[in-house]
Design goal:
Order of helices and strands: EEHHHHHHHHH
Shape: elongated
Low-confidence stretches: 1-29, 340-344, 346-352, 360-370, 385-393
Helix content: 25-40%
Largest sheet: 2 strands, antiparallel
Distance between the termini: 85 Å
Mean pLDDT: 80
Length: about 400
Amino acid sequence: MTIKKNGQNSGNLINSLGVQSQVLARNGKSTLLLLEIEPDLDRGIYPFKDIKLSRADIEWLLSTHDNNRGPVDWNDERQREREGLDLRGADLRGVDLHGLPLARIIAGPRFIQINEERYEEAKIHLEGADLYNAHLEGADLYNAHLEGARLRSAYLEKARLFSAHLGEADLSSAHLEGADLGAAHLEGAHLDEAFLKGAELVAAHLEGVLLAFAHLEGADLSGVFFDRETNLEGLLLSNNENVTASLSDILWGDVNVALVDWSTISTLGDENEAKDNKSAYGYGQAERAYRQLSVVLRNQGLNEDASRFAYRAQLMQRKVFWYKRKYLWGKMRDADMECKVATRPFQHRLLLFAMPMASRLHFFRLSATLTHGRKVRAENTFCPESGERGLGS
């Protein structure tokens, strides 16, 4: 069932300003009344829940959106905080929506805390819809149903597509820069020549996906799922300017990695991120990514590239050890300070100013290997009382 527009042609809907005052009837209800419905997540109430909409309906809603202000213009940065149409629960299966300005639409559940039934009711249905060249920048399509949708050359920058259902969808040449596709189901989708720079694809399902010549510079591919049907021909993972995809914990699944030019990659995004965070955990993740990639490449006969990434893994391992030792020496130094304060209260003031620097200098002269003997000597140096007890124990 579709909302009927009295004698108006859908192609001229937005330009016909007089349309805005007309009542669009559906089962005795007007669209104006539907728009007045306040969304209630707990009760599963949305303005267009389970209502079949047409292109004409969407065009009219866009023209009257936000007190006739119209759709969100993503090119105007001042409008990027505006909310688009609330289409949660709407039925747009197979509808021709190509080229429409749908930036910042709300089309999925915004809070995962709601119960499962309400969670399902909030999902928009766009299965088989034609969204060619549509503007969906910043759209909230969390868990939306887009199976088989035509999204070729669509604009989805910064869109929220976490856990969205995009199986068999056509996303060729689509703009998905900075989009969140974490845990999305993209099985069998076409992403050839798509632009995914900086996109989040953590734990996304990419089995059977066509990724030929797609741009994934700086994307996070941690934990994604590949299989032997996934096509990585000409995949671009780096722009040679330290903007490289993160590849830790990927389930490679016998995908043909020989189709990727690995010579263009000097460091992985995992290492670049570790350099920013400067932690043992970050470098550990980078080490794991290099080792996993090295094994996959070696298994497919790419020994030269495998050896290069294995060497990077060893460098990351050294960083892990260094940061772990730094953490342990810091803990020892803190314990020493507490010991001094506890055993010599009258030296508390002096300790706060003089001992920290002396302690740091002495500890960094010690060997990085934490043996029991060196630990005892450190205690003797900075806390004789506890050191003597340690020797006697």
